[in-house]
Amino acid sequence: MTSELAAILPSPGLPEPADLPFRKVSITDVRNLFTPPDEAIFHGQANDTFELLKAWAGSTLAFAIYWSRGNLFSQRFLTALVISAVVCGLAFILHELAHRIVARGYGAEAHFVANNGMLLLSIAIAFLGVFFAAPGAVWHRGYLTTRQGGLIALAGPATNLGLAVLFLIVLSVILIGGIAAPDWVLTLCAVGFRFNAWLGLFNMIPAGPFDGAKVLNWSPLVFGITVGIAIVLTFVLTDAALGSLLQWILGL
C-alpha cells in the first residue's frame, strides 16, 4: 500500500507579504506511478531516516527552485529555500510519518521509501516553472481491519489539515497582536496554511489510490467531516474572507 503525494503548481514567483495568503494550489495524487519496492525493506534492509531525508531534501530543493524561478544565485532563492524546507518538510514528511506511525501502532510492518526518480524529475522540471513533487511512499503489510486501514489512511490528510490550522493560528496571532515579524515568517505561515489545506483536501478524493477512498470505505461519517473541514480551510477561508475577519477582530 502506498501513500505517495504529488503537487503540481504553476510558476508564481515568491509572493510579497501583501499578496499572501492565499494563492490556490493544485495538488494531485500520483501514487500509481510508484513501483512497489523490493521485499528487502521488510527484512531489515530499510533505512527510513535516510529515505525521509532524501525526500525532504529533494522536495525542498524543487520547491525553492520553482518558487525563485530558477534563479539560484539570488536572495529570493535563499528565502525560498528556508520556507520550502519548513513547508515541504512538514507537509510531505509528517504526512508520511503519520501513516507509518499509525500502521505500526496496529502491528503492521511499515517503511518509507523515497522515490529517487520522481525527486530528480521534480528538481529538473522546477526550472521550467512547474512544481511536481512525489517524494516517496509508506509501504506496509500485515493483517488490518477495514477500520484500521481507514485510520491509517486518515492519518496523512488529518496531519495536513492540522498543520494548516496551526499555520493559520500563528499567522493570525502575529497580525492581530501586531508582532514585528520578518516578511519571510509571514510568507512561511501563509504558504504553509494554503499548501497543507490543499494537500489534505486532494488526498481525501474518494477514488483510486487516494487516502479518501479508504476512509470512505471505513466510515462515510468520518469521511464527510474530514472533507467538510478541508473544504472550509481551502475554499471558505479565502483571501478576502480572512482579510475581512482579521479587520473585524482588529476593530473590536
In short:
The chain has 252 residues and is mainly alpha-helical. It has helices at 48-67, 75-105, 116-126, 146-176, 183-202, 211-218, 220-236, 239-251; strands spanning 8-9, 109-114, 131-132, 136-141.
How would you describe the overall organization of this protein?
The chain has 252 residues and is mainly alpha-helical. The chain has one domain. It has a two-stranded antiparallel sheet. A two-stranded antiparallel ribbon has the order 2-4. It is globular. It starts with 7 loop residues before the first strand and ends with a helix. The N terminus is likely disordered.
What Rg do the Cα atoms give?
18 Å
Largest sheet: 2 strands, antiparallel
Q: What structural class results from the helix and strand content?
A: mainly alpha
Helical content band: 55-70%
Strand content: 5-15%
Give me the secondary-structure topology.
Elements lengths: L7 E2 L38 H20 L7 H31 L3 E6 L1 H11 L4 E2 L3 E6 L4 H31 L6 H20 L8 H8 L1 H17 L2 H13 L1
Antiparallel strand pairs: 1-3, 2-4
